[in-house]
Amino acid sequence: MMTFKATCLFFASITEFLNVSTCLKSSLKLEVLADWGGIPIFPYKTFVELAVGREMALLASKLGIDAILALGDNFYLNGVKDVTDERFKGTFETAFNYESLDVPWLVVAGNHDYYGNVSAQIAYTKMSNRWFFPDFYYVKNFRIPYSNMTVDVVMIDTVLLCGHTDPKEPYKQPLLDSVPKKTREKQWEWLEDTLKLSKANYLLVCGHYPVYSISTHGPTECLVKQLQPLLMKYDVSAYFSGHDHNLQHIQVQEGVQKTDYFVSGAANFIDPSKKNRNEIPPHSLLFHWGDPFSLGAFTYVDLNTSNMTVTFMLSNGKVLYASHKMPRYF
């Protein structure tokens, strides 16, 4: 039979354990990377990709990541041929072969994936316990631990919205007419309905093409025209993208409302270009990084009941930049 003192110590230890557990699991934790897709020849991966994967795994082992958002150009330069393509193993499975990264990878396609077979990438969902690419565009719902607060992650196919890129002129705007009008309109209608219906405390939209970028590709005209108004109208917490191979935080304000745009495309190649710095709204650039002599970077997103913190991290573990955003309330 336990003495009174032993009983008190027992319950104190249980309380302490629960408090620690709650502290450790009181937020939803995501990692974000884009343009991570290795190379088309053996060994199908780059030193930058491997370095980013190692640091992602280290961070995940410390914090317990819930999901990873993989935002296109998953397989350079020409996507995959079919569901048995060796690129799945060489560029994905072995490059990110860590227990801590054995979580759902929410995937969308980039322009380079469309030079190959995107349907094969979707089909690979049934062959992998972590690759999650159920359709060309989709929404995934999460709950913040120990709360009633929710997070909606809306994954969109910006290639089907804005068009394919010309392999001979990859840095020009996507070719809008390369995608049938009905295909584009169907996704735009789905997206607006999804945003309108969402009552999540954090509403994230993710795609490959950026809305705004100061780098090589610059703003995506189609998205500036059609997506930006939707993000503002439905109070989207943030838009995450890649396409340009660096890190950027751009914040656009209309009246009292602000929309945050994060580019996280530095997981395989790094581009320092700022050639389009005058093509975004004045004073909207809050951060840019693109060190070609580094071994890449990725994004860590922590969402709790108080705020969302977006952190840009180098593959050596150094924190480059962090920003915060309050949740939405209804």
UniProtKB/TrEMBL annotation:
Residues 58-246 form the Calcineurin-like phosphoesterase domain. Its cofactor is Fe cation. GO terms for molecular function: acid phosphatase activity; metal ion binding. Keywords: Disulfide bond, Hydrolase, Iron, Metal-binding, Signal. Residues 1-23 form the signal peptide. It catalyses: a phosphate monoester + H2O = an alcohol + phosphate. Binds 2 iron ions per subunit. InterPro entries: Acid_PPase, Calcineurin-like_PHP, Metallo-depent_PP-like, Metallophosphoesterase_PAP. CDD domains: MPP_ACP5 (cd07378). Pfam families: Metallophos (PF00149). Fe cation 1 binds at D35, D73, Y76, H245. Its EC number is 3.1.3.2. Fe cation 2 binds at D73, N111, H208, H243. The keyword Signal applies. Glycans are attached at N117. Disulfide bonds join C162-C222. The keyword Iron applies. This is Tartrate-resistant acid phosphatase type 5. It comes from Nephila pilipes. The lineage of its organism: Eukaryota, Metazoa, Ecdysozoa, Arthropoda, Chelicerata.
